[in-house]
Design a protein that fits this description.
696 residues; single chain; alpha+beta; seven-stranded mixed beta sheet; six-stranded antiparallel beta sheet; 35% strand; disordered N terminus
């Protein structure tokens, strides 16, 4: 096959995945019909955020329709849900609506949706923060707005100001006194209608805060602040529904609903792969997947046998198992979704890998200026490192402005909140290079490297204006990895870096009790790795073939016991701290419990095991917290509404009272043992003393 043929085939596949699919033999749900002179009352349905509403004119009659489907059966799923609002709705045949026939959708993206787990704190006399909302061509500026939930310090003077810019254009400035009664600020984006927006809508929030008349006094104060809650959001208008796979999956706040599929290996495996895709594109660890009859406001996914492997019709995706393999393969996700690079660094246990530059991690040259703390954040996952390094360092290249003689400037580097390096900056400006070590114990599944430049006026002379400190962080800064640990201790914090290559999925049964938590595990793994897991459902016997590099299991305790996990949930158990002699958990076999465990099967294959016993609803929220936390535990046990993260083996021990092993007898009779050992030692001393006395 020559090169031109390969390129032609790739072009066709990219069009199928990223371009619209048109068809004439389609169906829709007709909600109502109106005479052309009547006012069409659609506001109630739009207020409910119903998906895919569109209008069709037939002579003097206009019909309001919902959705577009390949057959009557799938249109009937929507009809069943709409009966509650529109009792006269019916399924009719239709052709694909043109773009202008679709009614606009109202959607929103909150700060929490794009990864802000905590409120944003702006502190100092001139605080600054930039927010980047994802944006695409189906979104319209007209009718969109920002809704900011703000809290400000009580000590600020009433003439302190906050300024909001979008795409570099000032939108509004308001005084602190304007926030006294209503702390919700709504800012319309209509002034940006003639601006071409790229992949992100860039919002800048800055302040000019004063508490006194003395500028230097205010600079030293920590009481000048503004807090932006993570409930703040971008409310936008979507001109039309998705007509490409890229638009279908890439909306950060979208909810995905798996509607109809067969409970067989191919369908469940296809769903697992798409769950990994959804997670890999996510900005937040919160789940966006559900199983339901149909979602009126989210995006619906149908897995089955269709004429085309992948078809996007509005907010509905029709996909075959083969289409899922194509969509989640190693090449095309990187072509369609800019957030994914499709590859990770290749590990070598003996030799160091090449340096990983900030540009390779997705960061260009960055520049900021101001007074106080100027923070550059760089995130990277364990998977991007290619393994778990025994030794690692970082080198940053930066350029800063001059530091005046009476002023002070510092550079601090933190990884996941832990201070790694601190230096003073002084003298004339220019390019600088700094290398710092990164201990392996500080590395986690997802890592946040903070490079903080701080600039403070040291003088007490507050007359006149002061230039802002300016600093640039270059994209050729890099991380250097040394030797990899071929078999590092497997914990929640490092498992995503080790779970790479071909993965095996093992389920006790192909039923909802097992594939629902499995799908969530695939979603969170994709999120933590920023890559789509390459997985396949298989049997336990295939783990010995060498075809798989890791395994993910969702099993009942009896089925999982032969794998010898750290904790055997088929037994009555106690988990104790041998140093403090404290019982951490005491569980009977009848108690409601879920557990997450990581371990090496047969001392070589890394495994992640999820189990539950007597649980009516999987506590997946706690599971997410365990996997995305900073814990170096290898076992997490969830009982009722509490969860415990523990390092079983090295620090914590498990005792099975009904299983008379050495650990059981040691725990039960250790006091007697110490008493007898002490008595024996005293007798020995008495014997030695008696012999020495006789010799004298």
């Amino acid at each position: 096959m020559n090169l031109s043929t390969v390129i032609a085939r790739i072009a066709v596949l990219v069009f199928l995945l990223a371009g619209p699919v048109l068809a004439d033999d389609l169906f829709t749900v007709q909600i109502n019909q109106f005479d052309s002179g009547e006012t069409i009352q659609i506001s109630d349905l739009q207020k409910k955020h119903i998906n895919d509403l569109w209008l069709r004119r037939d002579g003097n009659t206009i019909s309001l329709n919902a959705g577009i489907f390949p057959d009557r059966y799938h249109a009937g799923l929507l009809l069943t849900q709409l009966r509650h609002f529109t009792p006269h709705a019916q399924v009719i045949s239709a052709s694909m609506p043109s773009p202008e026939q679709w009614l606009p959708l109202q959607r929103h993206i909150s700060l929490q949706d794009i990864g802000y787990e905590q409120p944003v704190l702006l502190q100092g006399v001139q605080p600054y923060h930039a927010i980047h909302f994802p944006w695409d061509s189906t979104m319209a500026i007209k009718g969109s707005y920002l809704k900011l939930d703000l809290r400000v310090s009580d000590v600020l003077k009433s003439n302190s100001t906050v300024t909001v810019l979008a795409e570099g254009i000032p939108l509004v400035s308001f005084l602190k006194k304007d926030l006294m009664d209503d702390k919700k600020v709504i800012i319309r984006l209509d002034p940006l209608q003639n601006i071409e927006i790229g992949g992100t809508l860039d919002i800048e929030i800055s302040g000019s805060f004063r508490a006194t008349e003395a500028y230097c006094v205010d600079m030293k104060s920590k009481s000048l602040w503004l807090c932006l809650d993570n409930t703040s959001r971008l409310q936008f208008t979507r001109k039309m529904p998705s007509f490409s796979v890229r638009h279908f999956f890439s909306e950060p706040a979208a909810k995905f609903c798996f509607v109809s599929f067969e409970e067989n290996k191919d369908s469940i495996e296809a769903i697992a792969k798409m769950a990994g895709l959804i997670g890999s594109l996510a900005y937040s660890k919160h789940s966006r997947i559900q199983f339901a009859p149909y979602s009126l406001t989210g995006k619906n996914i149908f897995v089955g046998s269709f004429d085309n492997d992948i078809t996007v019709l509005g907010n509905n995706l029709f996909i075959t198992p083969n289409g899922s393999k194509l969509l989640t393969g190693t090449v095309f996700p990187a072509l369609i979704f800019s957030k994914l690079n499709g590859t990770s660094a290749e590990p070598s246990a003996k030799e160091a890998v090449k340096d990983i530059s900030f540009e390779m991690l997705g960061y260009d040259n960055r520049t900021t200026q101001g007074i106080g703390d100027l923070i550059f954040q760089t995130t990277f996952s364990g998977l991007q490192l290619g393994g778990w390094p025994e030794k690692m360092s970082g080198t940053i290249r930066y350029t800063h402005g001059p530091v005046l003689e009476d002023d002070r400037s510092f550079l601090r580097i933190r990884l996941n909140g832990v201070l790694l390096e601190s230096r003073e900056i002084f003298g004339d400006g220019g390019e600088r290079i700094l290398t710092f070590s990164i201990p392996s114990r500080a590395i986690q599944a997802q890592n946040n490297l903070e490079i903080v430049f701080s600039y403070y006026f040291y003088t007490e002379d507050c007359i006149g204006s002061y230039p802002a400190f300016e600093v640039s962080l270059n994209k050729d800064s890099f991380l250097s990895l040394g030797r990899y640990n071929p078999a590092p201790p497997l914990t929640f914090s490092n498992y995503p870096a080790i779970f790479k290559g071909k993965g095996a999925l093992l389920l006790s049964k192909l039923s909802k009790d097992f594939y629902t938590p499995m799908v969530r595990l695939m979603e969170i793994q994709g999120y933590l790795q920023h890559a789509i897991p390459d997985i396949a459902i298989t049997e336990a016997v295939n783990l010995e073939t060498g075809k798989f590099d890791y395994g993910v299991m969702v099993m009942d305790p009896n089925t999982a016991q032969p794998f010898d996990p750290p904790v055997d949930l088929t037994q009555k158990l106690m988990i104790t701290n041998p140093l403090s002699n404290r019982v951490l958990i005491h569980l009977e076999t009848t108690e409601s419990i879920s557990a997450l465990q990581t371990f090496y099967y047969d001392d070589k294959l890394p495994m992640l095991l999820y189990q539950q016993r007597n649980v009516s609803r999987s506590p997946l929220g706690f599971t997410t917290d365990l996997l995305s936390s900073h814990s170096r535990a290898n076992v997490g046990i969830i009982s009722d509404t509490e969860w415990h993260a523990m390092e079983i083996g090295r620090k914590i021990r498990v005792i099975y009272p009904d299983k008379k092993n050495m650990a059981y007898y040691w725990h039960k009779y250790r006091l007697i043992f110490f008493f007898l050992a002490g008595a024996g030692f005293l007798l020995f001393l008495f014997y030695v003393y008696h012999r020495l006395a006789k010799e004298k």
